[in-house]
Amino acid sequence: MIVSDPFLYENGTAESIGKSLKGKDVAYFSEIEPNPSCESVDKAAEAARTIKADCVIGLGGGSALDVSKMVSCLVTNVGSIYDYYAGGTKQLQPRTTELICIPTTAGTGSEVTNVGVFTNKKAGIKIPFVTNEFWPDYAILDPELTFTLPPAVTASTGMDAFCHAIEAYWNKDSLPICDMLSLGAMKMILENIKQAYEHPQDMEARGAIITASLIAGISFSQTRTTGIHALSFPITTEFGASHGVACAITLSAFIKISGEKEKEKMLVLANYLGYASINALSEAIEKLMISMNMPVRLSQIGIRESDLEHITQVGLKAAIIQLTPAIMNEETVYALLKSILE
Predict the structure, then answer these.
(1) What is the C-alpha separation between 82 and 80, in angstroms, rounded?
(2) 123-139 residue pLDDT tens
(3) Which of 66, 114, 157, 179 has its Cα between 20 and 30 A from that of 342?
């Protein structure tokens, strides 16, 4: 079964891949929404069980890939995703269905991680699900599949990949190999994202961005993410921002405070990327986002000062926020959000 974004089914991309699998009976599921709900997962799983799928191919952005991960497990694990996730009492048994992930955006890195993020509509929250059963058997990169990305999606997903890389780099659980992978990924993104944004069919730029996204995915899969992603969850689910925008909008502010506990390491990063100081890197990132018409203030996406306390509280409930190289508590998180409100 091929699990894809609706656009990729409607434009024939999913079917083209299905037809290339000669000798295989292929079914399609494309009812994937952004920030996929548990209900969508269950619907796709039921379709996969009906045909007794022995292979699930995820085709699309992070939402389609995350759904494909859970579906590949639910083919042989009975029940609903709710039984295993967000308070569920069951343990996923090892999957026997093959899982192949083919990204068509360059940002999530989901094709090389053991993480899926789903929206629990019953609780009104979006939280990650981490399990070794989510590691794909194969990841296939084809830059041409990203040629049709709208400029806004190129920008937001590319900056999401940058967030993955920098969060793995400054992470309290970072490892030397993560540092090397993240440094390379960040440099590739900064050198190519504007070109991919302005010239969507530039094979070299697109190839660099999708490769950097995968490298960043490998890096943060060892460490998990930090405060940027913790705060992105309520910004996405409650204010409608895309995941990439919800992450990138706090990026510059987090860079500024990252020297609190990792000053020397962050200065190495700034210098490596061509900037004299941590603040200079932060300002350059903000200018880059503005040049790609991305919001850099919370008020631009409808967030008001009265919302900051709630976002702070929700963000602090995510354990990953404490992997940030700065003090993360009610006072500091609220101050960070306030600094980028207007």
Answers:
(1) 5
(2) 878 888 999 999 999 99
(3) 157
Q: How far apart are CA 56 and CA 161, in angstroms?
A: 24
Helix (H, G, I), strand (E, B) or coil at 292: coil
Regarding whether 229 and 129 lie in a shared domain, the answer is no
Task: Kindly report, residue by residue over 56-95, the tens digit of the pLDDT.
Answer: 999 999 999 999 999 999 999 999 999 998 778 999 999 9
Q: Are residues 126 and 186 in the same domain?
A: no
Q: Which domain holds residue 260?
A: 148-339
Instruction: Examine the domain organization and report whether 50 and 114 are in the same domain.
Output: yes
Domain count, the chain: 2
The residues facing 101 across adjacent strands are 58, 139
Phi and psi (nearest 5°) for 254? -65, -35
Nearest to 222 by CA among 97, 130, 314, 121: 130
Can you tell me the distance from the alpha carbon of 213 to that of 278, in angstroms, rounded to the nearest whole number? 23
Q: Which of 219, 211, 232 is nearest to 303 (CA)?
A: 232
Task: List the end-to-end C-alpha distance of the chain, in Å, as a whole number.
Answer: 46
Structure pTM? 0.92
Q: Which two tokens stand for residue 146?
A: 């990203």
Residue 140 to residue 152: CA distance in whole angstroms: 24
The arrangement of strands across the sheet holding 138-139 comes to 28-29, 2-4, 55-60, 98-103, 138-139
Q: 206, 147 in Cβ contact below 8 A?
A: yes
Q: Tell me, rounded to whole angstroms, the distance of Cα 238 from its chain centroid.
A: 17
Residues 6+ apart with CB under 8 A from 144: 203, 206
**Which CATH number is 98's domain given?**
3.40.50.1970
277/216 same-domain check: yes
